[in-house]
Amino acid sequence: MSILQLIVTLVLSWWTFQAYRLLANYKCATQIGVRIVCVPISPDNPLWIALQTSFTSLFKYIPFDAFSFTRYCKLGWEFHDRFRTFSTLGDVFVLVTPDRNWFYVGEAEAANDILSRGREFGRPAEGAEWQRQRKLTATPFNEQKSKLVWTEALRQASDMRHSWAQQDEGGLKSTSDDTRTLALHVLAYAGFQRSYPFQSMNHDSAPTINKWKRIRTAVTNFKEYMQEQVEEEKALVEAGKRGSGKLISNLVRASEERGTDVARPEYKPLSVPEILGNIFVFNFAGHDTTAISLAYSVLLLVAHPKAQDWIREELRFYLEGELETLRLYNPLPGVPKYTGSRARTITVGKAAINIPADTLVVPHLMSLHAQPRYWGHDSLTWRPSRWKVNGAGTDSSDLGIRLSQETLLVPKKGSFIAWSEGARNCPGKKFAQVEFVATMAALFRDFYAEPVPKPGESLNAARDRVLNIVKDSNVELLLQMRNPENVSVRWFRR
Known about the structure:
alpha+beta; two-stranded antiparallel ribbon
């Protein structure tokens, strides 16, 4: 057999096996009794994700939307689809793939039920070991850490605003890159109490010739530094001395203190590799999600001058800008759960639906956050004021009285799950909120921002262009804008 024949045989065998698995999963899905969509490739197939991420410019020309058979293969289809599928198929449907079945939920009550039943609907990688580490790593995210986050975020954002305000008439195109720098610096301070001066990427002249070599060096140095920090903190614990106050200090101490409870094996101390792994997760998850949210929020405010005025007036409601941004542009497209080895039953409307074992159950975040029945007829419009609930005195001419009577909207349970919900919610929620509010306060309290129009373009047309660039987003592991550098922004003192 020639090499070509061997390759053809292997490819045909693989496709035959995939077709068999797709058929088997389809038969399983028919037992659920809801609408079904079949796709030839699972959305979480690693090779498929790598291809789409590496060849973004090529894949954007593929007409995924032409057929339902291919629409759901696109990485991040949830963002582009929003609630369209649920409008035609109902509040739940099953996405059948060769790897597994995905049970998508677009009703708030059912989503809230799933998220509140953490023991029944866990995450695919969860187990006793995950639960042990979650208990030990939740302690470091406390009010003391929030003070550190507030202080450093305010300082970094003030320096960033000062740098932005020094730009020439051409403005700056590094908004997205600069928010990444800010988020990284805040993490460095909260985690290791290392404060670094802010420098805009607009001025970055660092060589990129040996990028991969620099990455390898950075990874090696980071690991060595972390190991040194762990050993130093363990020595302080053994000597009975106070900790350094760093995030890694909190992790080591929480682990050591709770690990002394021999009657509770679930509190077994974290090993050094486990501590290092959690620090990496905190840095990856906390850095990227926060940086992306900040970039979206800044450019959305650049496109909405009235929102800039409003958010400046109501400093205490800066959080509304973050909530509205996360509602429409959440970095995570969904919150996957798993039935595990047993079938589970949920109620959707008045119907009880039995979900088979080994099924991914996904409260569809992008749909829940945009459903008109929960968010009104303008559910796809970015409008932070929707989070403001007016009280009895909000028609007063006195700003203090108006603000005292306004409260924050409490969405219907299950309709807003930006940080997930229940026992498995994001432990860094408060961290992210504090960082966001401090950054927005420093940026917009005394300054306002405008897009730089292109030749022959009006200011309003430039703002519309910014909105289109924001909407032109795609998922590459996380949701992000394709070309944020195409927006030039100028900052002015009020």
